[in-house]
Amino acid sequence: MSVLLRGICAAKGVAMGRLYVADRSQLEVTERLVAPHQVEAEVVRLFAGVEAARRQLQAVKQRIPTDTSADIASFIDTHLLMLQDSALTTVPAQIIRERGCNAEWALKVQRDDLVRVFEAMDDGYLRTRKDDVEHVVARIQHALLEEGDGDRMAGEDALAGHVVLARDLSPAELVLLNHQGVVGIITEFGGPTSHSAILARSLRLPSLVGLHQAHAYLKDDDTVIVDGREGVVIIAPDARTIDYYQGLKENIYAHHKRRERLRDKPVVTRDGHAIRLHANIELPEDVVAVRQVNAAGVGLYRTEFLFMNRVTPPDEEEQVEAYASVVLALDGAPVTIRTLDVGADKSCDSVRGGRESVCINPALGLRAVRLCLRETGIFLTQLRAILRAAALGEVRLMVPMVSTVAEVHQVRQLVEMARQSLQQDGLEHAAGIPIGAMVEVPAIALAADLFAPHLDFLSIGTNDLIQYTLAIDRLDDEVNYLYDPLHPAVLRLIDTILQAGAAAGIPVSMCGEMAGNSSYTRLLLGLGLREFSVPPNALLEIKQAINENDVQDVAAIAREFLGVVDGEARRRLLDRLGIDP
To answer: Pick from 209, 421, 475, 529: CA 20 to 30 A from residue 235's CA?
Structure first.
């Protein structure tokens, strides 16, 4: 009899095969006291473990085929950089010296501290960076305990055609699994915005995460189907189900081939509406993926990674190098740089100078633009760097978490101060750049008509706008079922923002997850959205949805949908918009 388990979609697609169950047990780390005269030897052992982990990752990187997309290797590079970070080298060494404990335990103590920091962050993407910390620490601990290389998988060819079930997987493990011919992934933990999930999407490896207790239901050699569209695993499917999914796989493959041919096609609806389709990036290396899908530019460049896992903030030259590399790589295409967006917790010591913030709800505390306007020295350095990079191409400045017009005026004043100081220093810079705001606070959405005249553009950050509007944490398993992009209040706010932008004559884009979900493309086009910014791996799918639709056809349906709460009328409209209820 077939059994169905439900998880969270991490990478779309369909996979069928026999199951390989990996990583049944977690790494056991216990505290061991080290004699005073052996403490320094233990520190040396720690650094030897770090070096062994580095060699392992370098070996993984060398096994990536030369014709593979550069963004695949960048995930390994991220972990290699973390191995150089003082947070995983100097700090654990200090713990060994202070506590007289073994290296494995010092790493565990530091890992737990770092994980608490990431878990306190409001930004969902940044919160899942704790997975990278856990993966890198586990790799070092495996090296210290001499329990293999931390990749914990079968031999070179043993997994070809298999679906792998694991507690969690690191990017390095995913690269190896893909190299071995694995067709699908299931993990008990992890989230859809983790680096491993993003990598799985880049590899087009159908993947589900968050199947808690999956090991209790699945065993080696089970025949399984992974449905990465619906978020389900089917155990022991019957012949009819297998035939259905085989046909579905063939259709998905044909769709991918058609989308690849869209790369150099213009983004325009069937009735002639030109749409701007940008990409979101987190690291300068991500620009490779942006160019591969021929995006119109970068609609969201997050800058937080420059500031994290360090004691002092990056200086101006380091920031100029990072921003300029993206601007130059895009060869004239626009780049929208979001100013520093860190939370009210202790998530960024380089900005907060080690000061703690007592805030019951960090999402509503001193964060993003609020923190930047408090720490004006750090903010001015970033603004100077952005203005210098803007001399090399088209750059827009986007300010997160804006909630008052006064904040907009303060930012403009600081941008002018940065410009004047650059002029005095004789450094090349842009005389002025467009300044916009991320609309993620319901207050600015409701009063968008009052804010728009003071800004050059607006960008709708749906991830936070939705959770703030509905008063839920979208990453909290207890309440995230309430996270609904189609809630009437959310759609009315989006409509209000779009209308305000049109009335003020300024562009409005959307850079949240809603923009990158093709299920909502028809609805957003109908509401009047003409500028999308999406993850690079979703761009061709969104382009296809745009090119296959007629704005005139969907506009009337979208308008009608704004006034429907529930019931049969809503279901009919959802069907006409191509959205599954």
So the answer is: 475
